[in-house]
Design a protein that fits this description.
Distance between the termini: 43 Å
Organism: Paenibacillus hodogayensis
Number of domains: 2
Radius of gyration: 23 Å
Biased composition (Polar residues): 41-53
CATH architecture of the largest domain: 3-Layer(aba) Sandwich
CATH topology of the largest domain: D-Maltodextrin-Binding Protein, domain 2
Order of helices and strands: HEHEHEHHHEEHHEEHHHEEEHHHHH
Largest sheet: 5 strands, mixed
Region (Disordered): 26-54
Biased composition (Low complexity): 26-40
Strand content: 5-15%
Keywords: Cell membrane, Lipoprotein, Membrane, Palmitate, Signal
């Protein structure tokens, strides 16, 4: 089982399948809901309503992107601090949703990332349009970072079926000990990838029979899956690849150059993304985004903001927040949205923020940036404001209904890109993208043919 310590930084660094913790706040914060009309006589504006915290309700919560430890030790107690008369039941993901649907035990809330929408909610027809509940409760959606709402709408044809809990954030880790050893100035917030490349050139060298590198990475995830241009692998309107483009070329050339610095050599194993991510923890690499702070024990380190491409300044890596989705089978939808809305309140978000769980708010205060992740064992005292330096990345354009979901596209592109810096192969970027395009298009055609 994942430990609580690992839970606290897993969502800080990873996305797509990572999880987050939730907290408590006061009844005066603006994230709660209710059903009575109330207005501010001074401003004339509608005031966010407060829920009836004493009214009993039973809620079952499916822990699709959570686990029982988090629910029992953190989530449930904190929700009950605000709603003491809510009876909460956590359902582990080992209980298959298909079985729950078949037995009539559909949960009220599903905790999950964007991938949960097509793979669970839409697959079993559990999506609930919350527009009417949001309207009657006067929940202020403008408080929420619109990018995260758009992430959800991307899969739901524009419907809001839940509210976000925590946002995905990233930072560039750097080995201070190695920088000091070679007399190289530390990285700074706000760098471009060109700046990072110049630093990497100074660090990449062979001394005492040890090959030092300026940069290492779980490169397929940080540069492709979470790419800062929000580029898709498949075309939005047609059944064809979308990888042979100028933007993909810019992005791929922008990171492959780190692997072609003088003295570096990679075979099919050492260049593999899952092997490359291990290098930084050995102390022989200067910089890396992918975080394993529990392994960074033999050297001093700190963090700065993730470098960005000059073509897209301040653009963050593309990831997924975690949501509380409310199902259409819930018999306590009002109580469910009370809980989901409460978790977006300013005070709750501030408390989560200290645990390294990034706020989903449209406006993040300077204090939040300074206190982010400061309760963390690993990041306390680090430059954790770097996690919140860049702007959230948007989803790519939604694909038209009925198009083939060719899931092997990413793997094909990764394999062709790795050839660019694999000894004995070393294809150029145009060849890599053209070959990937051809293979993806062939795969799409074969998948379509198999369904006829």
């Amino acid at each position: 089982m994942m430990t609580m310590r690992k839970l606290m930084y897993a969502f800080t660094i990873l996305s797509a399948g990572a999880i987050a913790l939730t907290g408590c706040g006061s009844s005066t914060s603006t994230g709660s809901t209710g059903n009575t009309d109330n207005s501010n006589p001074q401003s004339g504006k509608a005031v966010q309503q407060q829920p009836d915290t004493q009214k009993p309700a039973e809620l079952s919560i499916y822990l699709n992107s959570s686990n029982k430890q988090e629910f029992d030790e953190l989530l449930a107690p904190l929700i009950k601090e605000k709603f003491p008369n809510y009876t909460l039941t956590g359902i582990e993901s080992s209980s298959k949703m298909g079985d729950l649907v078949a037995s009539g035990n559909v949960p009220d809330i599903i905790i999950g990332t964007k991938g949960t929408i097509p793979n669970t909610i839409l697959e079993f027809g559990l999506d609930q349009d919350l527009s009417e509940l949001i309207k009657t409760s006067k929940f202020d959606l403008s408080r929420i970072e619109p990018t995260y709402l758009d992430t959800m709408k991307y899969y739901t044809s524009g419907k809001i079926i839940g509210l976000p809990l925590n946002a995905p954030v990233f930072a560039l880790h750097y080995n201070k000990t190695l920088f000091d050893k070679f007399g190289v100035a530390y990285p700074k917030d706000g760098m471009t990838w060109d700046d990072a490349y110049e630093i990497a050139k100074k660090l990449t060298r062979n001394e005492g029979g040890i090959q030092y590198r300026g940069y290492s990475e779980r490169w397929h995830q940080m540069f492709m899956e979470f790419n800062q241009f929000s580029l898709p692998y498949l075309d939005a309107k047609e059944d064809k690849a979308a990888v042979n483009t100028d933007q993909w070329k810019t992005l791929i050339e922008g990171f492959v150059r780190f692997y072609k610095l003088p003295g570096l050599s990679f075979d099919s194993k050492t260049g593999y993304t899952e092997e490359d991510l291990k290098v930084f923890a050995t102390g022989t690499s200067g910089m890396q985004i992918f975080a394993q702070p529990e392994k960074f024990t033999t050297f001093e380190w700190d963090i700065v903001s993730v470098p960005t491409f000059k073509e897209k300044p301040n653009g963050a890596l593309w990831g997924s927040p975690r949501f509380m989705f409310i199902t259409n089978a819930s018999k306590n939808k009002e109580a469910a949205i009370n809980v989901a809305a409460y978790m977006t309140s300013d005070e709750v978000q501030a408390k989560l923020n200290r645990k390294g769980l990034a706020p989903v708010l449209a406006k993040i205060t300077p204090e939040m940036k300074q206190t982010f992740n400061q309760d963390s064992t690993f990041y306390k005292g680090k430059n954790t404001a770097a996690f919140l330096y860049n702007k959230p990345a948007a989803e790519p354009p939604a694909r038209a209904p009925g198009l083939v979901n060719f899931t092997k596209a990413q793997g094909i592109l990764i394999a062709e890109v790795q050839k660019m810096f694999t000894e004995g192969l070393q294809v150029d970027v145009n060849t890599a993208l053209r070959t990937a395009e051809e293979l993806i298009n062939k795969g799409i055609a074969e998948q379509k043919a198999s369904k006829k």
